Amino acid sequence: MVTQMDVARRAGVARRTVSNVVTGFPYVSDDVRARVQRAIEELGYVPNHAARQLRTGRSDVVALIIPEVGVGYFGELCNLIVEEAAAHGMGTVVAQTHGSRSRELAEIERVIALQPDGMIASPLELTPADIETISARISLALIGEHFAGTETASIAIDNVAATTAVVEHLIRSGRERIAYVGVAGPAPRFNELRRTGYLSALSAAELPAVAEADAEDFTTRDGYDAGMGLVRRIAAGKTSTPCSASPTKSPSVCSGRCTTAASEFPPTSPSPGSTTSQKDATPRPG
Questions:
Q1: Which residue segments constitute the domains of the chain, with CATH numbers given?
Q2: pTM, two decimal places
């Protein structure tokens, strides 16, 4: 393995000078810097980042822990974070958890062992106690409102206002049968907040709610199946939900974090929110 001492001998300088060039120390003459860099290239020297981390206390790496890398929303989020980190001279370690508590804990432990400078996480199953323990070990920022109001920094949208705005947009576009795709019951919190915004907007417009499409879980397949099921039931006239619109109007779907069968809707039936077809599986946040 090529060492800094080998580079120093080739360049005819002290080892400390090689270290100064490698770490970007400014007070090195252009001639000496060029000689050292040429020696590095000729010998194929690779800096020991572990030693550098011990010396500086920094890894120049940030960790990103998300449920699904391949889902459109998280994929786009991942891309933006990776590029922003790169713009600041940092690398990114990405781990996927599928929203499982055991996987979330395992991946976080694995990543902490790499000693990144900080961690950005979107946990679905962790508890406040878990977050408190993790944040005591590493700088942590959270995505989503699961732990809003805690001492850990979190970034979230106003789900009630966002869903209300989506439904109002559909109403202004002339839609009167607007369905919500989510899971049954109040949990998780964002699901209930989005349902609240959906119902609030319909109430303000004096429109009835279309029967909801309950999904088993917040996965691409579950959301697609729930959305398609609702579309087929309405097309077959099997829903008994009162509706003030013409029977020939197709429903618009306002989705929660689930996906919907947008590609199967007639062209006049938009599907804002987390929308996707089964084929492309690229949900987008609403």
A1: 4-47 (1.10.260.40), 58-155 (3.40.50.2300), 159-264 (3.40.50.2300)
A2: 0.57
